[in-house]
């Protein structure tokens, strides 16, 4: 679809009118000069068809190029997204692993403190019971 008007050849009558107006020469309908109008019309029609075919070919070529660029950009964006997500997931997993390690350390220390507290509490009760029997 073009914005230009469709090709409309000049008629033989229009040529006769132009020759009369411009040169003051009247030509008959069977004048050989009008053969040039027929040839000119044929050449112009052929040129119009060639130009239209060329325009269509250019549009198709441009569309293929645009589709190729869009696909390339989409692939690049997807790769970048995947890389960023992969990096983010890896970072989160590293953070979870560090927290898990820290939690394991905390559990170990808490367990050893609990054992120490239980031993000290047992010794304290043993001392209380011992003093209770000594003082009694």
What does this structure look like?
By secondary structure, the protein is an all-alpha fold. The chain has one domain (12-135). It has two helices and no strands. It has helices spanning 12-23, 34-135. The longest helix has 102 residues, at 34-135.
Brief descriptors of the model:
84% helix, 2 helices, mainly alpha, 136 residues
The total of beta strands comes to: 0
Alpha-carbon distance between the two ends: 116 Å
The major sheet is characterized as: none
- Integer-rounded radius of gyration: 49 Å
SS element count, helices: 2
Q: Domains counted in the coordinates: how many?
A: 1
Strand content range: under 5%
The chain-level structural class is: mainly alpha
Order of helices and strands: HH
Mean pLDDT level: 88
State the helical fraction.
over 70%
Low-confidence stretches: none
Overall, the morphology is: rod-shaped
């Amino acid at each position: 679809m073009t914005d230009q008007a469709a090709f409309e050849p000049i008629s033989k009558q229009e040529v006769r009118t132009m020759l009369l107006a411009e040169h003051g020469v009247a030509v008959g309908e069977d004048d050989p000069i009008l053969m040039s109008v027929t040839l000119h019309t044929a050449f112009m029609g052929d040129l119009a068809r060639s130009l239209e075919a060329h325009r269509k070919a250019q549009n198709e070529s441009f569309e293929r190029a645009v589709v190729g660029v869009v696909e390339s950009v989409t692939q690049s964006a997807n790769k970048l997204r995947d890389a960023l997500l992969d990096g983010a997931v890896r970072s989160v997993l590293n953070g979870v692993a560090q927290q898990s390690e820290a939690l394991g350390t905390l559990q170990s220390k808490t367990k050893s403190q609990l054992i120490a507290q239980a031993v000290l509490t047992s010794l304290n009760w043993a001392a209380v019971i011992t003093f209770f029997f000594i003082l009694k």
